[in-house]
Amino acid sequence: MKKLVFALVVFGLAACARPIAPEGGPKDNIPPKVVPEKSTPNLRTRFTERSFNLTFDEWVTLQDAGTQVLVSPPLAKRPEITLKGRTVTFKFDSDETLRPNTTYTINFGTAVKDLHEGNPAKDLRFVFSTGDVIDSLSVTGIVVDAFSGEPQENISVQLYDAFDDSIAIKERPYYVARSDKSGQYSIPNVRAGRFKVVAIEDADQNMKWDGINERIGFPDSLIRINDSLSTIAGIRVFKPVPPLRLLAKNVGQYGFISLGYSRPPDTVPVQVSLPNLRWYRETDQDSLLIWYDRPDSVAWELIAGPDTVAVRALSRTAFLATNSINFADERRAAPGGRTGRQGAPQAPAPTGPLPPRTVTVRPTQPAEILFNTLLTQVDTAHCLLDVDSVASRLFELTIDTSKRRVLQLAINWRPEAKNTLTLLPGALTDFYGTSNADTLRRIFAVPAEKQLGNLSLTLEGLTPGMAYVLQLLRGGTTLETEQKFVADSTSMRFPFEKLDPVAYTLQLVEDHNGNGRWDPGDYFARRQPEHVFTQKLEALRANWEVEATLNVATGRGRRRGE
Known about the structure:
By secondary structure, this protein is mainly beta. The protein has four helices and 42 strands.
């Protein structure tokens, strides 16, 4: 009985010693605070201790100290951070050597929280100097994504007192801070002087830039800190363009080669080792597509930039026996079961004729029809167009010279009309001389004008002579239309007529190198990413016209509905 009573008493005392959050009562919104009388004094000079303690006015927890606690200047060795009761202890590694005459700031972020509601200690920092002076200058700013302009959280903003570009790869910074959810950062207790500033994503938290695997951003020049506050202009972080590398190749089918690259290969030079070889190239995102044809079947080599691709002898006769022309978005069974141009095995496609697909068109533009192969000729005598079941010859069919798999149908679109295009056998001829053996049919529906809306866009603050890419996005992702132009004045107007009544986003790229797309920056070339101006529009209403203005000089836009 004595042993039982003793065990119950010990258990009760242990339960009383454990901090447990109370139940009920008003919610605690007050963060824990340091009790100075029980803690190591803050803001000390000639600091020589190997550890310090912070004791709080309530029970606390210590969470994610490895990622939340940030020391500036960074330490060479990882410190030991522990919690006992209400006291957090920060202990330097035994091999750590602190810099002389240097102010250190240990920022705890949200690592220390109260036990009851998880309120983090506010602005919890411990500052000391190994010299006679506590540096009091500071650096602030904001980090945004270079393309979207959205604030970026947890970006490491680093200051160096050496200016070589490679220092961001080789050395830890002199000062460092991380951006918060609003993209803002602050580096307090900085000494006066000149610094190189680099912002990196630092996914592995080694405080060094790991090249193309991490985003990076930088100001145009060094910064000089010589007053009580220094604000850096917004830093735009970007993913560097990876080196152009051949990642994949597909050469298993006669007449077609697909090469996959680490980035768009539009500048890759192409040569062939075989004389009298007919070939054509096309770039599709990160792929280089090559169509080729030759009367006899022999092995040859394709030289694409620094890479040589061996192409074995394949049977042209066997290929032509199964080659067919089809819509690219429809899978039709061909002899031998082949339905695509990629040469990979595919599941059997439905046999027999497919019902015609209906596509909604924009009344102001030709309809584009994508095929599975290159087109070289269209015979309009074998092409029929019915408008509301009435035959019409008032149409044009042309092959797009820049995208030879695309057939463009241009007519005077009539609202609410049903337009049926029929391509009889022999209407199309492809790169290999094959004509379509099947009848191909597609229906184009035209919305009523009262179901559509108009948008009038005015661009202001343009730089005359500058190339731009103007995109109208459906929502914020799907490309509705695109225009590439060189500004001839500071203000230009662009009408977009007969649009679907949905929400659109305007996106304008300053195309400095004139390649027709947005390009990120280059850290070592000191080239900033191209600017992108974006403006979200309210949803366009049917039978409504909206006027929008985007001022490039200020980055601001305005809009009004009429």
